[in-house]
Amino acid sequence: MLYPQILNIKKTNRIKQLLMLGSFFLAGILVIVNFVIDSENHWSLLCILGLLYVWVTVIYSMKRNINIASHVMIQMIVISILTIGIDFVIGYKGWAMTIAVPIIIMAANLTMMILTIVSRKRYLKYAIYQMIIFILSMIPCILMLCNLIEYGILIVIATGIATFSLFLTILLCGREMLQESVRRFHF
User: Fold this and answer.
1) Is the model's pLDDT at 5 over the cut of 60?
2) Highest-confidence range of 56-60, 106-110, 119-123, 165-169, by mean pLDDT?
3) Coil, strand, or helix at residue 120?
């Protein structure tokens, strides 16, 4: 019988410390480059906030035994809100909804497709998150169709990928999803 390999805590902590030191070093370089090249705009602050976000995500992920699909969904929501907030802070240009959010949606749906293909037997645990991700993925398309945001080819592509991801899920796991829905919701 094979047992899971135990992580060497000392080695893991050492690697984490080195990566954190590298992040502080990178943040310092970003601030210096920002002030030398363009002291009027504080873009280095956005990069440092991005580094901080990455560290919070890594630490959260390492300390919790979480469902991968729920993590994908939460990351999709949080990063989308973050990019929309950044867009508003720097003087709303619309890039968040036409470029950043569609890319985030594509990444989330592609991740879910890979999870579907790789772990079909365990996919029932991910199905509800797939549905929520699909519904959230339709928001930019609906806003675009209502002329509330500009037309963007990335929005169209993201909608297509989300739809394909949902159909793939139904194709590969449809019967199991229906059985699980009947069992859980007593249809």
Assistant:
1) no
2) 106-110
3) coil
Token duo for residue 152: 């963007």
C-alpha–C-alpha distance, residues 150 and 98, integer Å:
7
71 contacts 61 by C-beta, under 8 angstroms:
yes
Residue given tokens 């990178």 in the structure block:
26
Angle at 23 between CA 21 and CA 27, to 5 degrees: 120
Count CA atoms closer than 13 A to 34's CA, side-chain side.
15
Burial class (CB in 10 A: 0-12, 13-18, 19+), 141: buried
Tokens of 108: 């989330």
d(CA 72, CA 36): 37
Residue type for position 167: F
Q: Say if residues 158 and 105 touch (Cβ distance below 8 Å).
A: yes
